[in-house]
Amino acid sequence: MPDTKGNQQSVSDPSSQKSVLKKITAYDIALSQLKGDMRYYFLLEGDYCESFRVHFEDNEALLKKSGLTALKYLEYVREAFDRFKQTHNQLPLEPMNLKSFTYVNESTAELIAKFKQRFGGSK
Q1: The whole model's pTM is what?
Q2: Is 86 exposed, middle or buried (0-12, 13-18, 19+ CB in 10 A)?
Q3: Which of 4, 55, 76, 87 is the most buried (most CB within 10 A)?
Q4: Confidence band (pLDDT; 50, 70, 90) for 66?
């Protein structure tokens, strides 16, 4: 847009603002519902939170097709982490480490593989 001297002024481009805005996903909604529940403490902070989000979002269509919502997925992740802590005699609020993350990630990958066998999937 020209100013009074004929120079161009920069106008913020709405398309560039869209890249800044983050789309709220089903995973975000489920996570916000669980924020007050202490059993999901490891999903709210730490190094591995984003990996669970990516894993869910990559397989969201298949999970929805099989009836597994984001809330149920997070519940499954929590249960897998609890199983790991019980079998390794860890304290209830033990933070997630690489070994436990690998166990939980493999467990969810196996669940998704079973759903792919049953319901079909492209990935």
Answers
A1: 0.76
A2: exposed
A3: 55
A4: confident
